[in-house]
Amino acid sequence: MIYTSELFAAAILLSWVIFVVMVLTKKLYDVMRRRGLEHNVAVYYNRKIIHILTGGLCALLVPLVFKTFILPLAISLLLSAFLLLYHRRKRLMHWFQTEDNTYEVSFCIMWGLILALGWLISGGDFRMGVLPIIFMSVGDAITGIVRNIMYRRRTKSWWGNLAMALFSMVVGAAVGLAGVLAGAVASLVEHFEFKPVDDNVLVPLASFLILLFARAFAPWLLAL
Known about the structure:
By secondary structure, the chain is mainly α. It has 8 helices and no strands. The longest helix is centred in the N-terminal third of the chain and has 31 residues, at 4-34.
């Protein structure tokens, strides 16, 4: 059953995501370019800003405003289709999309999928799905921002992964030792590329599997 309050919350969160993607980051792109940042640097910053302000913030709000995974999953799939359409039509939103990958599409899909699986496996508790999404949304954004500041281009760096690990392990501690381990593994996995699979798939999947394993075989490691 979907409640009216959930529909209202979904409309607000969807509006917020659209605002961040279509208005806020477009303005930020123009500001960054005027200040001399190269196109690819501004795009990369925007992608990480979107990660935090949409994926991260919305994931934190999901347990507070939704009773089931249905609407969050529906929104994520709708947004993934919307973003993929821009790629198919070759009319990219240049301030954050790039021709060489569709990572923002897999981000949306994994956001909804992990939340849904976490809710189903835990019997209605969103927290098991929210934590891996926070690693993907905020933790990955932190490592990307650190790398962008240091190298001014998209590259892998252990300094970025260290920053991600510090954040993710501290946040993961909220759900016990399994959460700390999940945060560490997520930060390690992010460093490596296994194309065509991108880290927006590997980071939440690897950390979710650790939480799932702990729930099944070592529940004393998981405070859920």
